[in-house]
Specification:
This is DUF7513 domain-containing protein. It comes from Halolamina salifodinae. By secondary structure, this protein is mainly beta. It has a single domain, classed as Beta Barrel (OB fold (Dihydrolipoamide Acetyltransferase, E2P)), CATH 2.40.50. It contains one helix and six strands. The chain has a six-stranded mixed β-sheet, with no helix packed on it. Strand 2 and strand 3 form a beta hairpin. It is elongated. The termini are far apart.
Length: 79
């Protein structure tokens, strides 16, 4: 094993499109708005909080309600 291989042994990289399941609870920061919906971006994944009165840059706790792994998009609700 080369030193390079030894250095990176066991290392892994985070995905730019994390996957979630309905029911997952997360602490997130609202990154923007689209009409009445607040948007949360985690890497290239976008979670929409429909008809939520939360301003951008707010830290909130959410529960994922739907998620499309192929599109890396979903909806969530405030807790």
């Amino acid at each position: 094993m080369s030193r390079f291989d030894a250095f990176f042994e066991g290392a892994s990289f985070r995905s730019a499109t994390p996957q979630y399941e309905a029911g997952d609870e997360l602490d997130v920061i609202v990154t923007g708005r689209d009409g009445d919906d607040a948007l949360v971006r985690i890497g290239d994944t976008i979670l929409r909080l429909p008809e939520t009165d939360v301003v951008a840059d707010s830290e909130v706790r959410i529960r994922v309600t739907e998620f499309d792994a192929g599109e890396s998009t979903g909806t969530a609700e405030l807790l």
